[in-house]
Amino acid sequence: MGETNQPPPPPPVAAPPSMMPMPMMAPAVGAGAIHPPHEQFHHLAYCVHSNPSWVQVAALAFLHYLVMLGSTVMLASTIVPAMGGNAGDKARVIQSFLFMSGINTMLQTLIGTRLPTIMNASFAFVVPVLSIARDIDSNDFTNNHQRFLHTMRTTQGALIVASILNMILGFSTIWGAYAKKFSPVIMTPVVCVVGLGLFELGFPQVGKCVEIGLPMLILAVIVQQYVPRYFSHIHERITYLFERYSLLLCIGIVWAFAAILTAAGAYNHVSPKTQQHCRTDKSFLMSSAPWIKIPYPFQWGTPIFTAGHSFGMMGAVLVGAFESTGAHFATARLAGATPPPGHVLSRSVGLQGIGMFLEGIFGAPAGSSVSV
C-alpha cells in the first residue's frame, strides 16, 4: 500500500534555561528567622540584627537602666531592713546588685544566648533570704549591724552552694534536653507570672505615697498609650519619641513634682514614715554611701555555709532558671530571632550559675535572672 518505514520524529528539545537573573526575595525579619514573614511583628522598629545610632542606643540603655534600678531598689528595700541593715547598708547592697547585673548581662549577651536581655536581681530570692533573716536571732548580737553582717555572710554561702546546681544543669546539657519539651502553652504563663509577680511588691509601694505614686501611674498610662495615637497627626516624630522615651519623661515630671512638694513644706507635719516615702530628701541613700564604689570579693566577711539554707536557696535558683528560659523565648520572638536551641539554653543556664556564684563572692544577697 505504499507504506514506508520512517524513523519516529525526535523528541522536543527543552529550551535552554534563561540567563536572566532571578529576582531576589526579601529576607525575613531578623536574618535567619524560621517564622514565616506574616508572623513577624512588623510594627517593631528594631530586630536582633538592627544597628541604631549611638544616641538612640545611649538613650534606650539609660531607659533600661532606670527600669532595672527601680526593681533593684525595691528588692533591696524589702530584704535589707529585715536583715538588720541601715540606709548605708542598703545603698551598698544596691551598688553590689547593679555591679553584678552588669557583669551577668555581659556574660549572657556576649557568650550565653546573645539575645538583648538584661540580667537583674530576681524577686524569686526574697523568700529564702527572708527565711534566713528570720532564722538568725537578733538576741545573739549586740547591734543590728552585726546581725546584718552575719545574715549577709549566711546568704552568701547559701547562694554560692546553690549556684552549683545551675552550673551542673547547664554545662551537662540536661537543661537543654529538658527545654525541648517547652511549648508556648508552658512559656507564656511563666513569663506572665514573672511580670505579674512584681505587682505584689510594687502596688503597696505606690500606696505608701498616693500623691506621688498615683500621678505617676496615670501619667505613664496616658503618655504611653494615648499621646502617640492622638497627636501623631502633628508630626511623626511625636509618636517616635513618646513610644520610646515616655518613661524618661514621666520620671522627670513626677520627680520634679515630688521635689516641689518637699521644698514647699507639704510633708513637714506628717508622720516620719510618710516623710520617708514621699519626701525626696529622706531616703539617705545618697548621703550614706560613696559616689563610686566597686564591690570586692567577700566585702561582708567570710561566707557561712549551712545545709538547710543552701537547699532553700536551690529552689530560688531553679525558679530563676525557669524565669530566664521563658524570657529568652519571648525575647527571641520579639526580636525577630530564631527560638534558642537546647545547647544555647544549656549554656545560658550554666553561665547564669557562674553569675550567681560570682554574686555570692562579691556580696550580692540575691541571684540574677532575666529582667522581664
From TrEMBL:
The chain crosses the membrane at residues 62-81, 93-111, 117-136, 157-178, 184-202, 246-267. InterPro entries: NCS2. It is a multi-pass membrane protein. Keywords: Membrane, Transmembrane, Transmembrane helix. Belongs to the nucleobase:cation symporter-2 (NCS2) (TC 2.A.40) family. The lineage of its organism: Eukaryota, Viridiplantae, Streptophyta, Embryophyta, Tracheophyta. One of its GO terms (molecular function) is transmembrane transporter activity. It is found in: Membrane. GO terms for cellular component: membrane. PANTHER family: XANTHINE-URACIL / VITAMIN C PERMEASE FAMILY MEMBER. This is Nucleobase-ascorbate transporter 3. Pfam families: Xan_ur_permease.
